[in-house]
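Okay, is this right?
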Amino acid sequence: MVVQGTTYTAKGGTGGAGMANGTTSLNSVAGQRQGGSSSGDVVQQSDGCDGHRITSLGGATGNGASSPFGGAGRGNSSGGAGAAATGNGGGGGGGSAAGSSAAGGAGTAGLILIDEYA
């Protein structure tokens, strides 16, 4: 967004790392915040939660990150896609599946709020 010649950006974070089916306990790295957003009075970024494989039959998926304007999608550890985020700036939850794959939930668009005083 460009306002009076100044460009403002609100970058989203990275998605979490996927994980193959297996029989050993393992963690997957959560989605991380990403640099490059415009500086301002408030720039809020959060990381998601790691996923965990406990056995070949299950584990715990990570929740997405929340923001002051949007809620995180919850992870789905019982099998299936993760929940989508709500509001602005929320991350989607992780999906889970035994022996196959499942999609993570969709994140939402960021938000740039500009108050102009004359």
Notes: Strands lie at 2-3, 6-7, 26-28, 51-55, 58-60, 70-71, 86-87. The chain has no helices and seven strands. The chain has one domain: 1-107. The longest strand covers residues 51-55.
